[in-house]
Design brief:
Elements lengths: L1 H9 L3 E2 L1 E7 L2 E7 L2 E6 L2 E8 L5 H6 L2 E6 L5 H8 L13 E2 L7 E2 L4 E13 L2 E13 L6 E4 L2 E4 L6
Antiparallel strand pairs: 1-11, 2-3, 2-6, 4-5, 5-10, 6-9, 7-8, 9-10, 11-12
Length: 160
């Protein structure tokens, strides 16, 4: 059943996000596809994260994180943040803005949402982090980078 479930989920397109936070003045970040809006009142998101990734422990302890929605222009950023060998140089790829101590944001992200972490729930191998959106930055028309069947894909309008 696990193989069938994995195969089924590989066929579901997911938008690529970079989750960022700051720990002791140092920026940290990772790619994530398990991000979803939760509520409009209050504006909130949920981020699901495997407990084995290096960002899990810091995410469980911080107050602020940023969800950066990538566009088709950000394939290099997505690759840098998904390769653990590049952990120390990830923020050298892309245009990052660190306006305050909360969390870095990708300056030209389709959207960047600064969240105050308000909840943390464990389920199976993952944690679900709840964030109340406190600030939003927008940049241009939607052109999300998506992940489908094990690779980055460009989304596009459906023509009929």
């Amino acid at each position: 059943m696990l193989d069938d479930f994995r195969h089924a989920m590989r066929g579901v397109a997911s938008t690529i996000h970079i989750i960022t936070l700051t720990v002791d003045g140092a920026p940290k970040g990772m790619t994530a596809t398990a991000v979803s809006s939760l509520s409009m009142d209050p504006p909130s998101l949920l981020v699901c994260m495997n407990e084995t990734v290096s960002m899990h422990a810091p995410m469980a302890c911080i107050d602020w994180f940023c969800v950066n929605v990538l566009t088709t222009r950000h394939v290099a950023v997505a690759r840098a943040f998904s390769d653990s060998r590049l952990r120390d140089v990830r923020f050298e790829t892309g245009r990052w803005s660190i306006e305050d101590e909360h969390a870095p944001r990708l300056a030209d992200a389709q959207a960047a949402m600064l969240c105050r972490r308000v909840g943390h729930h464990r389920f199976g191998t993952h944690s679900i982090f709840l964030g109340e959106v406190r600030r939003v930055w927008l940049d241009g028309a939607p052109d999300p980078l998506v992940y489908l069947n094990g690779s980055f894909q460009c989304s596009g309008p459906v023509t009929t």
